[in-house]
């Protein structure tokens, strides 16, 4: 702004304040009006900075206090005040100090019958009330009574005034003291009656904004407990519910319905979960004190409604800029390397886990590389590479080829060639409607002939036959302890017969071996059953599944259904049909309801309640020895009708948001489909949403803190068959027994003359299970000293996974890694010849087995125990860390350490790493980072993976060191072992929003492919490093020729894009529908500045028009005659 203009403005303002001359005041007001109406917000703010607000307020007070106030001055003045006041955060305070509140209220009272004057006063009051403190003061001075008088009783006259008055009232009621006053004066009843009157008379929806204003008043009152009580006592739930039911689809009523929904959710009486105790249904005696709260019985008396917002404070909240104070800014902590957490001599025990360093290979034949002498085993020399691309071939050939041919076919696909195809060759079923049953997409000829061409017996008869009652069977785990004599046949026999009649081949799976492994798996609840999918195996579906498109308004429909339960309880069945807490069997098989079961490995379902004929509330179990972490579920359901949508509501979820709101579906496995030749977990479910519900944890459980909230995951499933046995899970299950089976098969699959594969026990878990440790490398070329030396000198790579049991995606990625590393793929060979892989595929077996989501049997998050693990409390972490310490102590720290995880809030796959500089920079730390020397090599691997792996994205990677993560594997291995490339790899539970998999949910093949690509990334990382041996480069070059410069291509791409594009991908944008209604996120829209601006402008131009002008349809325009 020009200097002259600036000084001119100051002169105007000064003159306005000091002048008592009517004409000059009017001229100045006219000038200011012109100046501001033509200018931008910036000009108004400038005027505020020059004392504009004060000058206008002072003029108002001076003019209003004369014996007969001059409205020719007051009206333009009010318009200016409203305009300026909207943009001046301290306006209310200034008005209060200059005593402008009182004079405005007095003017309003005087003008109750003079619409134009009153309207101007209301605008001024509206901007005063934007400050809660001023609003409270206005309340004390009787503003609410005045406004209430203006808006009651209902009349369709002076609608402009009524609208302005409701808006001021709504603003006033944001003050708690005003709300309290409104409750005491019985305004809740009055407001509800007004709402009803307007609703029934305004059939053309002309006055939506008045109706919305009234509802906003109710909403603010309902923020108080006494307000909610008054609302409930006045039958508010019933009133709002019934007035909205027949107009839910009316778009013009959207502003009304959204507020109604907020009020109904706010006022829905809070109640405890329908559980006897918040702690897990499973308890396990563990050493040491358990960190979580003791079990506590929930009773109605214990339960406290939210008392959190009762503080009688009316202060304006300051805009506090959110700072990330979780970043570690202590340079000493970032740079110092702490000593070992245990005596050096303790490390010697890990020598035994590194036999590769001492083995002399005396019995190795001197003739190297004699592949042909190896007698082929079933899986020997396999080429199985789990990629989405190979899956495509696999499925295309499925009908025509026998399994042998197929394997040959996939055998020709090397990882490098899939890298070339990978990003552009995703097989996506075309024209598939979201929510459609993907089983129908599978190749089914409906003639009872399976894919192998052999006839299969009638499935129905099969399942009904007593001995084949899959529902009851699900494979008794131990016939010895299972004394029920109605199951005469041995499980093995049953399975064998099933396998005979339903031949199947699932790579790296063997039902009989699984059964043997499962018998040795020890669970807290001593599971007697095995889940059919784990036993029978899973084969990926023929095509990738797109994300589910969110149905518009689904959450609203669900919430109204929840409210209907409260208001019309007679329609509700409310029958407990399954519960871990009840010792007696709840399920009478004769009844029509679904049957549930979860007492099997990784199973998690605590209780099922039938709500309506085809609707069930489900509660999942807390982690063992804990009261929280409900998210993972895995259960069996049977007794269904086909083609009927069943609705499931998991009502005790804990996370505040979920990918279920952004296209993710749960997974389903049908036993009938499996027996028809499609043993496949698929994404299933429609009408999915995830939102905050009315259940609260009792304060007694949380130790006095106000009750924790719960969230509902709701989804509908249409089962593929009548009377099927199906399994539903949060994500593709992967049990501990599945891992143990897999490792045995992998071991048998390798040619021991080529592949050094050793499986051993890292330690025993608290639950008495073995935590496996796998070593993979290549056998030395010969037993010559040179070759054995080369063998021993290979650098280490350490990979771990599944410390969080609910993150089964991490296990599928690990499965891909393991299968690739032992494969005959040339890249895998090179990797084996150059590295020793130490892999702990499941850091938390007990958690996985017992269906936990997050913790160990002690109820602890094991990925927060790496700083000082104890051998008897966190054995797997203690020994994993011990092994890494040992490697470090002999100068053999791994090149890369990576811990595989699953991520519930983000899409894609990405890495978290550690960087001092990036952390300090991000925290805007004052510590000079210029003197700090940091090797930026931690960025290389994620950049490589970004180029190689379709699912991976650099843009979600982060290299910040947070205080809250100080005890995670990533940070501890980085700090204490000095491994600069120490990572967490996160895979979304959902899928990708970038790259070739954009819009697709992850299937197991995409996850497994990621595991293989990770390995390729390790090779390329080595090729790019300065220390890379000439020998390896030559070998890689040979491979490169053979693979049509694929590798070259990628190496070039990696190096050419060394300045990475790191446009931060945000986490999900705000959900279209409010998940958490208690956050007042919509309040900003209440006082629509531009709307008030427009009204003022309009009024200034039309001021000569008549007083009784009616407000036009919805928008405040003039009604057409
Ligand atoms: Zn995790």
UniProtKB/TrEMBL annotation:
<dbReference type="GO" id="GO:0006508">
    <property type="term" value="P:proteolysis"/>
</dbReference>
<feature type="active site" description="Proton donor/acceptor">
    <location>
        <position position="986"/>
    </location>
</feature>
<dbReference type="Pfam" id="PF25571">
    <property type="entry name" value="TPR_CCP1_N"/>
</dbReference>
<keyword id="KW-0378">Hydrolase</keyword>
<keyword id="KW-0645">Protease</keyword>
<protein>
    <recommendedName>
        <fullName>tubulin-glutamate carboxypeptidase</fullName>
        <ecNumber>3.4.17.24</ecNumber>
    </recommendedName>
</protein>
<dbReference type="InterPro" id="IPR040626">
    <property type="entry name" value="Pepdidase_M14_N"/>
</dbReference>
<dbReference type="Pfam" id="PF00246">
    <property type="entry name" value="Peptidase_M14"/>
</dbReference>
<dbReference type="GO" id="GO:0005829">
    <property type="term" value="C:cytosol"/>
</dbReference>
<dbReference type="GO" id="GO:0008270">
    <property type="term" value="F:zinc ion binding"/>
</dbReference>
<dbReference type="GO" id="GO:0004181">
    <property type="term" value="F:metallocarboxypeptidase activity"/>
</dbReference>
<dbReference type="InterPro" id="IPR033852">
    <property type="entry name" value="CBPC1/4"/>
</dbReference>
<dbReference type="Pfam" id="PF18027">
    <property type="entry name" value="Pepdidase_M14_N"/>
</dbReference>
<dbReference type="InterPro" id="IPR000834">
    <property type="entry name" value="Peptidase_M14"/>
</dbReference>
<feature type="region of interest" description="Disordered">
    <location>
        <begin position="1100"/>
        <end position="1121"/>
    </location>
</feature>
<dbReference type="InterPro" id="IPR016024">
    <property type="entry name" value="ARM-type_fold"/>
</dbReference>
<keyword id="KW-0963">Cytoplasm</keyword>
<dbReference type="InterPro" id="IPR050821">
    <property type="entry name" value="Cytosolic_carboxypeptidase"/>
</dbReference>
<feature type="domain" description="Peptidase M14">
    <location>
        <begin position="732"/>
        <end position="1022"/>
    </location>
</feature>
<dbReference type="InterPro" id="IPR011989">
    <property type="entry name" value="ARM-like"/>
</dbReference>
<feature type="compositionally biased region" description="Acidic residues">
    <location>
        <begin position="299"/>
        <end position="329"/>
    </location>
</feature>
<keyword id="KW-0862">Zinc</keyword>
<keyword id="KW-0482">Metalloprotease</keyword>
<comment type="similarity">
    <text>Belongs to the peptidase M14 family.</text>
</comment>
<keyword id="KW-0479">Metal-binding</keyword>
<keyword id="KW-0121">Carboxypeptidase</keyword>
<feature type="region of interest" description="Disordered">
    <location>
        <begin position="293"/>
        <end position="345"/>
    </location>
</feature>
């Amino acid at each position: 702004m020009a200097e002259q203009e600036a000084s001119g403005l100051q002169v105007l303002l000064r003159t306005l304040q000091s002048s008592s001359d009517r004409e000059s005041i009017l001229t100045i007001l006219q000038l200011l009006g012109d100046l501001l109406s033509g200018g931008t917000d910036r000009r108004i703010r400038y005027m505020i900075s020059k004392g504009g607000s004060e000058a206008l307020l002072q003029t108002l007070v001076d003019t209003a206090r004369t014996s007969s106030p001059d409205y020719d001055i007051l009206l333009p003045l009010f318009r200016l005040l409203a305009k300026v006041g909207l943009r001046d955060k301290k306006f209310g305070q200034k008005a209060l100090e200059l005593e402008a509140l009182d004079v405005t209220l007095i003017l309003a009272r005087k003008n109750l019958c003079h619409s134009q004057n009153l309207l101007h006063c209301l605008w001024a009051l509206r901007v005063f009330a934007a400050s809660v403190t001023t609003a409270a003061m206005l309340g004390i001075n009787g503003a609410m009574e005045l406004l209430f008088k203006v808006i009651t009783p209902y009349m369709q006259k002076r609608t402009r005034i009524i609208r302005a008055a409701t808006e001021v009232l709504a603003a006033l009621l944001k003050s708690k003291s005003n709300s309290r006053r409104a409750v005491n004066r019985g305004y809740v009843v009055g407001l509800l009656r007004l709402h009803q009157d307007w609703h029934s008379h305004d059939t053309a929806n002309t006055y939506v904004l008045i109706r919305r204003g009234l509802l906003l008043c109710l909403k603010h009152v309902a923020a108080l407990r006494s307000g909610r009580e008054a609302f409930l006592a006045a039958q508010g739930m019933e009133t709002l519910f019934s007035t909205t039911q027949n107009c839910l689809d009316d778009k013009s009523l959207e502003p009304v319905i959204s507020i109604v929904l907020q009020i109904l959710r706010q006022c829905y009486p809070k109640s405890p979960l329908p559980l006897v105790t918040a702690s897990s249904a499973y308890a396990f005696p563990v050493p040491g004190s358990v960190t979580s709260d003791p079990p506590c019985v929930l009773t109605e008396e214990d339960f406290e409604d939210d008392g959190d917002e009762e503080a009688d404070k009316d202060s304006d909240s300051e805009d506090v800029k959110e700072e990330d104070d979780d970043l570690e800014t202590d340079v000493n902590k970032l740079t110092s390397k702490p000593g070992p957490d245990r005596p050096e001599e303790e490390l010697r025990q890990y020598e035994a886990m590194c036999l590769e360093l001492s083995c002399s290979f005396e019995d190795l034949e001197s003739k190297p590389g004699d592949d042909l002498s190896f007698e082929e085993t079933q899986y020997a020399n396999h080429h199985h590479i789990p990629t989405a691309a190979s899956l495509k071939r696999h499925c295309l050939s499925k009908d025509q080829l026998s399994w042998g041919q197929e394997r040959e076919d996939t055998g020709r696909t090397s990882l490098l060639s899939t890298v070339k195809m990978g990003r552009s060759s995703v097989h996506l079923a075309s024209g598939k409607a979201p929510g459609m049953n993907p089983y129908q997409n599978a190749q089914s000829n409906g003639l009872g002939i399976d894919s192998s061409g052999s006839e299969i017996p009638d499935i129905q008869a099969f399942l009904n036959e007593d001995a084949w009652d899959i529902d009851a069977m699900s494979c008794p785990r131990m016939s010895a302890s299972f004394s029920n004599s109605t199951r005469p046949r041995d499980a093995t026999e049953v399975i064998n017969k099933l396998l005979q009649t339903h031949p199947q081949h699932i790579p790296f799976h063997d039902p009989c071996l699984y059964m043997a492994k499962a018998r040795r798996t020890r669970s807290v609840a001593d599971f007697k059953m095995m889940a059919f999918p784990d036993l029978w195996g899973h084969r990926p579906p023929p095509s990738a599944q797109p994300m589910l498109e969110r149905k518009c308004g689904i959450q609203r429909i669900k919430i109204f259904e929840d409210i209907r339960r409260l208001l019309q309880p007679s329609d509700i069945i409310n029958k407990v049909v399954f519960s871990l807490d009840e010792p007696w069997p709840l399920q009478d098989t004769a009844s029509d309801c679904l049957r549930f079961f979860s007492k099997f490995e990784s199973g998690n379902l605590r209780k099922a309640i039938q709500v309506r004929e085809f609707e069930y509330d489900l509660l999942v179990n807390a982690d063992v020895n804990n009261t929280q972490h409900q998210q993972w579920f895995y259960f069996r359901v049977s007794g269904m009708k086909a083609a009927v949508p069943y609705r499931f509501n998991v009502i005790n979820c804990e996370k505040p948001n979920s990918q279920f709101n952004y296209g993710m579906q749960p997974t389903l496995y049908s036993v009938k489909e499996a027996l028809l030749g499609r043993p496949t977990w698929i994404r299933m479910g429609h009408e999915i949403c995830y939102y905050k519900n009315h259940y609260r944890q009792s304060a007694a459980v949380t130790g006095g803190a106000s009750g924790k909230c719960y969230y509902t995951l709701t989804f509908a499933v249409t089962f593929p068959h009548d009377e099927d046995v199906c399994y539903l899970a949060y994500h593709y299950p992967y049990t501990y027994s599945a891992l143990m089976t897999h490792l045995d098969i992998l071991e048998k699959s390798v040619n021991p003359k080529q592949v050094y594969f050793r499986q051993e026990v890292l330690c025993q878990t608290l639950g008495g299970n073995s935590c496996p440790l796998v070593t993979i490398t290549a056998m030395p070329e010969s037993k010559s000293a040179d070759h054995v030396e080369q063998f021993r000198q290979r650098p280490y790579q350490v990979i771990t996974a599944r410390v969080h049991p609910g993150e089964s995606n991490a296990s599928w990625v690990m499965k891909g890694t393991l299968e690739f590393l032992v494969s005959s793929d040339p890249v895998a060979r090179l990797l084996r010849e150059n590295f020793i892989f130490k892999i702990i595929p499941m850091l938390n077996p007990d958690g996985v087995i017992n269906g936990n989501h997050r913790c160990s049997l002690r109820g602890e998050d094991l990925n927060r125990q790496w700083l000082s693990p104890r051998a008897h409390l966190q054995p797997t972490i203690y020994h994993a860390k011990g092994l890494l310490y040992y490697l470090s102590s002999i100068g053999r720290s791994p090149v890369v350490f990576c811990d595989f995880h699953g991520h519930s809030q983000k899409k894609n796959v990405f890495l978290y790493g550690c960087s001092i500089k990036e952390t300090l920079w991000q925290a805007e730390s004052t510590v000079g980072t210029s003197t700090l020397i940091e090797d930026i090599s931690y960025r290389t691997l994620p950049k490589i993976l970004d180029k190689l792996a379709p699912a991976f994205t650099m843009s979600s990677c982060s290299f910040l060191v947070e205080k809250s993560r100080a005890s995670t594997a990533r940070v501890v291995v980085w700090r204490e072992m000095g491994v600069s490339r120490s990572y967490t790899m996160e895979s979304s539970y959902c899928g990708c929003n970038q790259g070739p998999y954009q819009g697709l949910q992850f299937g197991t093949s995409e996850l497994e492919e990621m595991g293989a690509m990770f390995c390729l990334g390790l090779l390329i990382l080595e090729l790019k490093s300065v220390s890379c041996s000439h020998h390896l480069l030559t070998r890689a070059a040979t491979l490169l020729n053979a693979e049509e410069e694929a590798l070259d291509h990628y190496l070039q791409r990696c190096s050419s894009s060394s300045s990475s594009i790191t446009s931060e991908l945000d986490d999900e944008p705000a959900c279209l529908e409010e998940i958490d209604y208690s956050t007042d996120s919509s309040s900003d829209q209440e006082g629509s500045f531009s709307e008030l601006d427009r009204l003022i402008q309009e009024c200034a131009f039309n001021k000569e028009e008549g007083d009784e002008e009616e407000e036009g349809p919805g928008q405040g325009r003039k009604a057409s005659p």
